[in-house]
Design goal:
The complex is a heterodimer of chains A (163) and B (591). By secondary structure, chain A is α+β, with helices and mostly antiparallel strands. Chain A folds into 2 domains: 60 residues; 86 residues, Glutaredoxin (3-Layer(aba) Sandwich), CATH 3.40.30. Chain A contains 7 helices and 4 strands, in the order ααααβααβββα. Chain B is built from 19 helices and 20 strands. The longest helix of chain B has 21 residues. The model of chain B has no long low-confidence stretch (mean pLDDT 93). The chains are: A alpha+beta (163), B alpha/beta (591).
């Protein structure tokens, strides 16, 4: 097991302690950890297992069952391409394929520089502006294949300016 | 207990309320074809849908293994709708199953094949993509092949019920689901203790022992001096593979079969067990006398030793430093026996027949060798031995009863025999400790208070000439954990603890013949509740038949000390018969 920092151990213990009165606390604990750190690696699952008495295999099963939970760190920008029905008929597949091609990663993966994660989403309720792409909370309406390189360029420039 | 009125195929019955349809039907004389359910609902997630029946009051067909009976319910098992549905459930399972049945090691004991035959499943009824499969052959004890897994969840339930461990779980979802240790790791790279309880309940060939028959074949082919030694619990169960009722001891026929398989010498591990008692008993007395670490815990069960190394690294000084009996005996065969017979230990090959698959792991531990000579070269299970006998055309039931080879290590005591059942090592040790402390034999030899045949904790206080020895016994890691946590918290009141990995001890080991009611039509309906007790009785009855019932009275043990080892816990004894332990990380980083 890779060693967790002392702070992380304290934080995760604190998260587990929030739900000691719950009969089935696992989902709440994992949600909080996912929100806090963006991912739930095995060493964290071992710690949760020690605290709750739930086996590592069961925790791992829950983490891999729900796509909301992640085993690996996500990128700084999470590009969520909606593949719901409306977006799909408006060409969302070509859009996610373009992101995939330009970033060199498959949906669900993160770029090596840790900047981008590409996710396929089901309907995000923005059918009126289909095809829609949500990037770290901001929704880009009526995206076309041609717009994809511009979106990435814009984000990279923003990142360059920040540094 | 309240009763409800039900009808099965129109015939009225009264059954206990709260039963599932499957259990109720069984009591009324119906065996509904079923697959995933096991042992009165030990596994009851109703995943396979093989046991579908029609029942009034329910919407559509119901899985009888999880659906409870209620007042006035009318059940149809034989309706065309139910019969067809059960057949289709099996056909769907087969459509995503690796059907290399002829080569499958589980052939003949496969419950999926059994229900396929029962329900009349047709070949290729459904065809489609197979899910991705995973194969783990890294662990010395057991093999996992998900191409044969039907996702019934029995192994997951057993691991958690027997040990509170939960090594196995469902991973991913939907079509990509498979059963594995977290991260799809090998058993070897997870805190799995390789006890094989999961193997005992797997309905198909998805979980199997890691067979070593080929190693034995090779040694015999290469003209090695192949010596075989069989553990006590093997004789109590081997007969089941040849149609004997559970609990029939087959010692004489087993010896005859081993001889016909071509082994040069056929020895009983009971000699090693007697040796263990001499060493372990002496170690206990020394610890008690000299303020050593107490309680001392037995170390015969390699599943338990694995558990200790993974989970209680801080308590390892409590473990007896004794090797397990077959390792001790292996070391003696490779040294004393080889010397007596004028053989180079390098030409001697020791095979252990064990009720256990963790022994396969144990024998390859770094510590299990003396001067570069491995104590034991191959470990086969009771089931593997049965396979070797069957393929050799030996008609087991017609074999004569033969005796163990008796040159320099053939004698054994009744104390050695009972090593195979929970409480047995404790009782064997107490018989000798009593003698050492008092200088005389106990009037009543037995210590009934430590006996049992199931998981759970037993304890006793034994007053020996004013010295009170508090002892405790646990089998299954769930029970062991309670005793270990007491030690950790400094609250343990015991001097000596016996722990065995499998619930009930070696008689219920991971390498023993499968106890699957669907293949045992002549056994009692409650055989899953009684088989451990029956096997235990087979061992206690052999103990009673022995003339010598205490390890220290075994004349060949005395001779071994006089001629070779000196005295118990001597320097020579330590070199050959004792070992060390080291804490291990369960989920160590993968390379």
């Amino acid at each position: 097991m890779a060693k967790l920092s002392e702070n992380a151990v304290l934080k995760i213990n604190e998260i587990c302690d929030r739900y000691t009165d719950e009969k089935t606390p696992l989902m709440m604990i994992l949600s909080d950890i996912q929100n806090e750190y963006g991912y739930i690696p095995l060493e964290v699952q071992e710690l949760v297992s020690k605290k709750t008495g739930i086996s590592v295999a069961e925790i791992y099963g829950v983490v891999t069952f729900y796509s909301f939970f992640s085993l690996l760190p996500k990128g700084k920008y999470i590009i969520g391409c909606c593949l719901g029905t409306a977006c799909y008929v408006k060409g969302a597949q070509q859009i996610i394929d373009k992101f995939s091609e330009l970033l060199g990663i498959k949906p669900g993966e993160t770029t090596e520089d840790g900047l981008f994660t590409l996710d396929a989403l089901r309907c995000i309720g923005a059918c009126g502006i289909a095809p829609a792409v949500s990037i770290s909370g901001q929704v880009y309406p009526k995206v076309s294949v041609e717009k994809v390189p511009h979106i990435l360029k814009e984000l990279r420039e923003k990142e360059g300016a920040a540094q | 207990m309240s009763l409800v009125n039900i009808k099965i195929e129109g015939v009225p019955y009264q059954v206990e309320s709260g039963l599932t349809i499957l259990e109720a039907a069984k009591r009324c004389g119906y065996d509904i074809p079923s697959l995933c359910t096991f042992n009165h609902g030990e596994c009851n997630i109703g995943s396979c849908r093989v046991c579908l029946v029609e029942a009034t009051g329910a919407r559509g067909l119901v899985a009888s293994c999880v659906y409870p009976v209620n007042e006035g319910m009318e059940i149809r098992i034989s309706s065309p709708k139910a019969v067809e549905a059960r057949r289709k459930s099996v056909e769907l399972l087969l459509s995503n199953h690796n059907q290399n049945c002829q080569q499958c090691e589980k052939n003949g004991k496969c419950e999926l094949l059994h229900v396929a035959t029962l329900t009349g499943a047709r070949e290729g009824a459904f065809q489609g993509v197979h899910s991705e499969t995973h194969l783990d052959v890294l662990a010395p004890g057991l093999v996992r092949d998900t191409s044969k897994c039907i996702l019934c969840g029995r192994c997951i339930a057993r691991c958690s019920n027997a040990h509170g461990l939960g090594i196995l779980g469902f991973e991913n979802r939907g079509f990509k689901t498979f059963v594995s240790p977290a991260e799809n790791r090998s058993f070897n790279e997870s805190p799995c203790i390789q006890c094989g309880q999961c193997v005992n309940v797997c309905p198909t060939g998805a979980l199997m022992e890691h067979s070593e028959i080929y190693k034995v074949d090779e040694a015999l082919k290469n003209g090695k001096h192949v010596v075989v030694q069989a553990a006590p619990a093997v004789r109590a169960a081997l007969g089941e593979e040849f149609g004997y009722p559970i609990g029939t001891p087959v010692t004489g026929k087993m010896i005859a079969a081993l001889r016909r398989l071509g082994f040069e010498r056929v020895y009983d591990v009971n000699f090693g067990a007697d040796l263990t008692i001499m060493e372990e008993g002496t170690e206990l007395l020394n610890r008690m006398k000299n303020g050593g670490v107490l309680p001392m815990i037995t170390s015969c069960s390699p599943g338990w030793v694995n558990y200790a190394e993974y989970n209680y690294g801080d308590l390892l000084p409590h473990l007896s430093s004794c090797k397990s009996p077959h390792q001790m005996q292996g070391a003696v065969i490779k040294s004393y026996w080889a010397q007596q017979n004028g053989l180079d230990p390098k030409d001697v090959f020791v095979v252990s027949v064990m009720p256990c698959i963790a022994k396969k792991f144990e024998k390859q531990r770094d510590q299990m060798e003396v001067n570069g000579i491995r104590d034991v070269d191959a470990v086969i299970t009771t089931r593997e031995l049965a396979k070797m006998i069957k393929r050799s055309g030996i008609n087991f039931t017609r074999l004569p009863d033969e005796e163990w080879d008796n040159d320099i290590m053939g004698d054994y005591s009744g104390a050695g025999v009972i090593f195979g059942v929970t409480g047995g090592v404790m009782e064997a040790a107490l018989r000798t400790v009593y003698y050492v402390l008092t200088g005389k034999e106990k009037d009543r030899i037995t210590f009934e208070e430590v006996r049992g045949h199931d998981a759970g904790i037993r304890e006793a206080s034994i007053d020996i000439n004013g010295t009170v020895v508090n002892v405790a016994i646990a089998s299954g890691m769930k029970s062991a954990k309670v005793l270990l946590d007491e030690i950790r918290e400094g609250k343990s009141k015991y001097q000596f603890i016996e722990i065995m990995g499998c619930p009930g001890g070696c008689i219920n080991g991971g390498g023993q013949p499968y106890v699957k009611p669907c293949f045992l039509p002549n056994e009692d309906i409650d055989i899953l509740d009684t088989y451990k007790e029956k096997r235990a009785k087979a061992l206690y009855s052999e103990d009673e038949r022995q003339v010598i019932r205490q390890s220290h009275n075994n004349p060949q043990i005395k001779e071994l000390y006089e001629k070779y080892l000196g005295e118990p816990n001597s320097h020579k004894a330590h070199e050959l018969l004792h070992t060390t332990y080291a804490a291990r990380e369960g989920f160590r980083p993968l390379k």
